[in-house]
C-alpha cells in the first residue's frame, strides 16, 4: 500500500471532518488518535482481506494459537512501522502541527494478559505475520484488562482497568460468525442405531461473538487475525435471563482476566472461561474447515492447534467431541486426528502453577467434556497395561484422586510438547516430565522464547536503531540476526560513543518521566539498574532489595565512600491475593522513601518503584536501562523474556544461570555478562538433601545479619508487620528460594558492575556485544522453528518479505 505525505495529510483531515466535524486545531488528542486509527485501518483492510482469501485459495495449512492471555500493548506505532508508514505519518503529522508521540500516548494499552506468557503470545502474533505465516490467535476479549496498580502509603492498590470505555478502535466485531457454547446441565448418550448420540439437557447456551484484530506483518503485505471471544446471551435464550443479575451472570464470563501469574486459583469461573474460548475457537475452526467440503480424516493436514500452557488443554477433548458427536467419526480415527493436530507449550515447572481441576467442577462446567477426558484416561491406562508398571501408569494418567491434571491431558493428547529455553526443556525431560519423556521421547522439543525486535528496538528505541543503521545498514530490520554484524565494529570508537549517547538521551527522557510521575529526581549519569517483571518470590526482587539496603548502610557508615551512583528502578505488579509479594512491594517502597529522602545520600543512591508496570511503561524503561536484573533462583524461571529485551537495548545483564540467561551467556561470552549464584545442579542438590540452613548465613555473615536486622529493628520505617514477615520467611521458613545463599555472590558481582562502569568505552563495547547477539532471540526465528518443526506450516505464497527495503 503506497502512501505519500500529501495523501496522508489529505486523508487525515478528511476523516477528522467526517468523524468529528472538526479541524485539526480544534480536535482533542483522543479524537486525533481515533482519526489516525481509522486511516491506518483503511490502509491495511484490503491486505487483511486478501491474506485471508489467499489462505483459502491456496488451501494453506493454518495454525491457531490458543492462549488465555494476549498482551499486545499499544498497536498504533507498531502497525505504522510494519506497514512502512511510520516516517510518512510522523512527518505528515508534524506538517499539521501534531506529534505522533503525543497522539500515541492517547492509546490505552490492550492488557489482556499478566506477564511473560501473554506478552510472548503477542510477540508470536507479530512474528507469525511478519514471517508471512498463516497464523491466527484465539483468546478472550476481557471487558476489564489487568488491574491498574497504584501505591497508597507504599501499599499496592488495585483499580479496575476499563480499557473499552472509548471503544477499541482496532477490532472488528463479527456478529455473523458467532457460535453457541454449551455449559452446565446434563448429558445422556443414546444409541440411536447408527451412533452414540449426545443429548444435552438443561445446559446454558452462551453466544460467543468474535472480535477480530488485524495483525500487520512487517513490510510484507500480510495481515493475520487475532480472534478474541465475547460472551453474550443468544436471542433465543433471552427469556431465560429476565433480570439484570441473570444477564450479568452470562456476561461476567468474559469480564475479568484472572490476575495470577505462574500460580493458579481453582475457581469455577476460570474453568468456564477456559472452556468458553476453547469451545468457541474449535467450533469456528471446524465449521470453517467443513465449508470447503474437505474430508475430516485429513483435518490435521490442514490445521494445527497450539495449546499455550494448559489453560486451553480442553482443546483436546473439545476437538474429540466435535469429531465424535457432530461428525460421527469413530474413536480411534478421531484420536489420531486430534493428536496430529494438537501441540502444547509448557511454561513452568513450579508446582503451584500446574493446573489440576476437581472432576466435580468439570462435570458442572461441561459434563460431556468430562466424559471424553475420562475415556481418554481409561484408554491411556489400558494401552499401557503390561507395558509399564502400575506406579508409572498411576503417576502419568490424567485423572488421579478425583483431580484432572491438565498438563497430562495436553501431553497425551498432542504430538509435541516443548519447553521455552534449553535448561527448561532439559528439566522437563529429566525431571518434571521424565515419565512422559520415557514414553514419548519423540514428542519433546525445545523452542527457546523470542521477542519482536520491531516493537522492542525499532519502535521503543529509535535513536539506537538509527545508530545501528549508520554502522551496518538497515538489513537487520528485516532479519534481526544481522545485528551480529555489529561485532565487526567493536573497535569503532565513534560508534561506541554514539551508543553511549543514545543511552544517555534515553536516560534523560526516563529521568524526566520519573520526575513527573513520582517527583523523584534522578541523575541520568548514574547507573540505571532495572528489574521489571511480575513480583514473585522466585524472581527474587527481595535479593535486589537486600543489596540496596546493604549499599545504604555502607553509605551511612562512610558518607564519603567512593561509589558509582546508581538508580534502582523497579516495575512489578503482585497478584492481589499474593500476600507475600505485596509485603515485598511495601518494603521496597519504604526503603525507597528512606533512601531518597536522606540528604546525606544525595545522588549516590536512588530507588524508584514505578507504578503500573506494563507494555507501554516497559517501552519507556528498557531503552534507558544500563543493567538488567535476571536473578531468579536457578531452575525456577522457565525462560524469561525481559532479559532479551534489555540486552537488545544495550543493557548488561546481572544473572543467575537460569532460563534463557544461560543462552544469553553462551552468545555474549562470560566477559559481557555478570553471572552469580547457585547453579541448577546445586539447587537440585539442596532441594533433594535438605541441607540448606538459611539461619547459618545470618549467624555467620555479619553483613547479612545487619541487613536483615534493618527490617525488624526500626531502621527501615513503617514496615513493622511486613519487615517481620520477610525476616521470618528467610530465617524461620528457611528461605525457600536461597536468597541468603546467593547474597554474597550477588554483592560481589554488583561490585564488578560498578567497577566496569568506570570505563565507559569498555562498557559501551560490552553493550555493543549484547546488542549484536540479541538478534538470536528474535521471535521471527523462534516462530519459524515452531512452523517447521511443530506445525508444518509454510509462508504465504504472496509473501513479499524484504521487497520494500528502500524506505529506510
Ligand atoms: C507466565 O507468565 C509464565 C509461565 C506460566 O506458567 C504462567 Br501461568 C505465566 C512465564 C514464565 O514464568 C517465564 O519464564 C516465561 O518466559 C514466560 O512464561 C513465557 O514463556
TrEMBL record:
- Keywords per UniProt: Allosteric enzyme, Carbohydrate metabolism, Glycosyltransferase, Pyridoxal phosphate, Transferase
Q: What does this protein need as cofactor?
A: pyridoxal 5'-phosphate
- Give the record's GO CC terms: cytoplasm
**Matching InterPro entries:** Glycg_phsphrylas, Glyco_trans_35, Pyridoxal_P_attach_site
Alphabetized CDD domains for the sequence: GT35_Glycogen_Phosphorylase
Q: Which residues carry this modification: N6-(pyridoxal phosphate)lysine?
A: 645
Q: Name one Pfam family in it.
A: Phosphorylase
Record's superkingdom? Bacteria
The cross-references to Gene3D superfamilies, in alphabetical order and at most eight, read: Glycogen Phosphorylase B (3.40.50.2000)
Q: What is its EC number?
A: 2.4.1.1
The record's function comment reads: Allosteric enzyme that catalyzes the rate-limiting step in glycogen catabolism, the phosphorolytic cleavage of glycogen to produce glucose-1-phosphate, and plays a central role in maintaining cellular and organismal glucose homeostasis.
Q: Which family does it belong to?
A: Belongs to the glycogen phosphorylase family.
Q: What is this protein called?
A: Alpha-1,4 glucan phosphorylase
Amino acid at each position: 500500500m503506497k502512501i505519500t505525505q500529501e495523501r496522508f495529510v489529505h486523508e487525515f483531515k478528511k476523516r477528522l471532518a467526517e468523524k468529528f466535524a472538526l479541524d485539526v486545531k480544534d480536535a482533542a488528542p483522543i479524537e486525533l488518535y481515533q482519526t489516525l486509527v481509522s486511516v491506518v485501518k483503511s490502509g491495511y483492510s484490503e491486505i487483511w482481506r486478501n491474506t485471508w482469501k489467499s489462505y483459502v485459495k491456496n488451501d494453506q495449512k493454518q495454525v491457531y494459537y490458543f492462549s488465555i492471555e494476549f498482551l499486545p500493548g499499544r498497536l498504533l506505532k507498531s502497525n505504522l512501522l510494519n506497514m512502512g508508514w511510520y516516517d510518512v505519518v510522523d512527518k505528515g503529522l508534524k506538517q499539521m502541527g501534531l506529534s505522533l508521540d503525543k497522539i500515541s500516548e492517547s492509546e490505552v494499552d490492550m492488557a489482556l494478559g499478566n506477564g511473560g506468557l501473554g506478552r510472548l503470545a503477542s510477540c508470536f502474533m507479530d512474528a507469525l505475520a511478519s514471517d508471512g505465516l498463516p497464523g491466527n490467535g484465539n483468546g478472550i476479549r476481557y471487558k476489564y484488562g489487568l488491574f491498574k496498580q497504584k501505591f497508597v502509603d507504599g501499599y499496592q492498590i488495585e483499580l479496575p482497568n476499563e480499557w473499552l470505555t472509548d471503544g477499541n478502535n482496532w477490532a472488528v466485531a463479527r456478529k455473523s460468525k458467532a457460535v453457541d457454547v454449551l455449559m452446565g446441565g446434563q448429558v445422556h448418550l443414546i444409541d440411536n442405531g447408527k451412533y452414540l448420540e449426545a443429548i444435552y439437557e438443561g445446559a446454558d447456551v452462551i453466544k460467543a461473538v468474535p472480535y477480530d484484530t488485524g495483525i500487520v506483518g512487517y513490510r510484507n503485505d500480510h495481515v493475520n487475525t487475532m480472534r478474541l471471544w465475547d460472551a453474550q446471551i443468544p436471542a433465543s435464550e433471552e427469556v431465560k435471563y429476565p433480570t439484570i443479575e441473570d444477564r450479568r451472570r452470562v456476561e461476567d464470563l468474559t469480564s475479568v482476566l484472572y490476575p495470577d501469574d505462574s500460580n493458579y486459583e481453582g475457581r469455577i469461573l476460570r474453568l468456564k472461561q477456559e472452556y468458553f474460548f476453547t469451545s468457541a475457537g474449535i467450533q469456528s475452526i471446524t465449521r470453517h474447515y467443513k465449508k470447503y467440503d474437505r474430508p475430516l480424516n485429513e483435518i490435521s493436514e490442514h490445521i494445527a492447534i497450539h495449546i499455550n500452557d494448559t489453560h486451553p488443554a480442553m482443546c483436546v477433548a473439545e476437538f474429540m467431541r466435535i469429531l465424535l458427536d457432530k461428525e460421527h467419526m469413530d474413536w480411534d480415527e478421531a484420536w489420531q486426528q486430534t493428536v496430529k493436530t494438537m501441540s502444547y507449550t509448557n511454561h513452568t515447572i513450579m508446582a503451584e502453577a500446574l493446573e489440576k481441576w476437581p472432576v466435580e467442577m468439570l462435570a458442572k462446567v461441561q459434563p460431556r467434556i468430562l466424559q471424553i477426558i475420562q475415556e481418554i484416561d481409561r484408554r491411556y491406562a489400558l494401552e499401557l497395561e503390561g507395558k509399564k508398571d502400575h506406579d508409572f501408569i498411576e503417576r502419568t494418567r490424567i485423572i488421579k484422586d478425583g483431580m484432572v491434571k491438565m498438563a497430562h491431558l495436553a501431553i497425551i493428547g498432542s504430538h509435541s510438547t516443548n519447553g521455552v529455553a534449553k535448561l527448561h526443556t532439559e528439566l522437563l525431560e529429566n525431571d518434571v516430565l521424565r515419565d512422559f519423556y520415557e514414553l514419548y521421547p519423540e514428542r519433546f522439543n525445545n523452542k527457546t522464547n523470542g521477542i519482536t525486535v520491531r516493537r522492542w528496538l525499532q519502535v521503543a528505541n529509535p535513536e539506537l536503531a538509527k545508530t545501528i543503521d549508520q554502522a551496518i545498514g538497515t538489513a537487520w530490520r528485516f532479519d534481526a540476526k544481522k545485528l551480529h554484524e555489529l561485532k565487526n565494529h567493536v573497535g569503532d570508537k565513534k560508534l561506541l560513543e554514539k551508543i553511549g549517547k543514545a543511552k544517555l538521551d534515553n536516560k534523560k527522557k526516563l529521568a524526566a518521566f520519573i520526575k513527573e510521575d513520582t517527583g523523584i529526581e534522578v541523575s541520568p549519569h548514574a547507573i540505571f539498574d532495572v528489574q521489571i517483571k511480575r513480583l514473585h518470590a522466585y524472581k527474587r526482587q527481595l535479593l535486589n532489595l537486600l543489596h540496596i539496603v546493604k549499599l545504604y548502610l555502607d553509605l551511612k557508615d562512610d558518607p564519603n565512600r567512593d561509589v558509582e551512583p546508581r538508580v534502582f528502578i523497579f516495575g512489578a505488579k503482585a497478584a492481589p491475593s499474593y500476600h507475600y509479594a505485596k509485603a515485598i512491594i511495601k518494603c521496597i517502597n519504604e526503603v525507597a522513601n528512606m533512601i531518597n529522602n536522606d540528604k546525606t545520600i544525595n545522588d549516590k543512591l536512588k530507588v524508584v518503584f514505578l507504578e503500573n508496570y506494563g507494555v507501554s511503561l516497559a517501552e519507556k524503561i528498557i531503552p534507558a536501562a544500563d543493567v538488567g536484573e535476571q536473578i531468579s533462583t536457578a531452575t525456577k524461571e522457565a525462560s524469561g523474556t525481559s532479559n532479551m529485551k534489555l540486552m537488545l537495548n544495550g543493557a548488561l545483564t546481572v544473572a543467575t544461570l537460569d532460563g534463557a540467561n544461560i543462552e544469553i551467556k553462551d552468545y555474549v561470552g562470560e566477559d559481557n555478562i555478570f553471572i552469580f549464584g547457585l547453579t541448577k545442579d546445586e539447587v537440585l542438590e539442596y532441594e533433594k538433601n535438605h541441607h540448606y540452613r538459611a539461619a547459618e548465613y545470618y549467624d555467620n555473615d555479619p553483613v547479612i545479619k545487619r541487613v536483615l536486622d534493618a527490617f525488624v529493628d526500626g531502621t527501615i520505617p513503617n514496615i513493622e508487620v511486613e519487615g517481620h514477615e520477610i525476616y521470618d520467611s528467610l530465617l524461620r521458613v528457611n528461605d525457600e528460594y536461597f536468597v541468603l545463599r546467593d547474597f554474597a555472590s550477588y554483592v560481589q558481582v554488583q561490585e564488578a558492575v560498578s567497577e566496569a562502569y568506570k570505563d565507559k568505552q569498555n562498557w559501551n563495547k560490552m553493550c555493543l556485544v549484547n546488542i549484536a547477539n540479541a538478534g538470536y532471540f528474535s521471535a521471527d526465528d523462534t516462530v519459524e522453528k515452531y512452523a517447521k518443526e511443530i506445525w508444518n506450516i509454510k509462508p504465504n505464497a504472496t509473501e513479499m518479505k524484504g521487497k520494500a527495503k528502500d524506505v529506510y
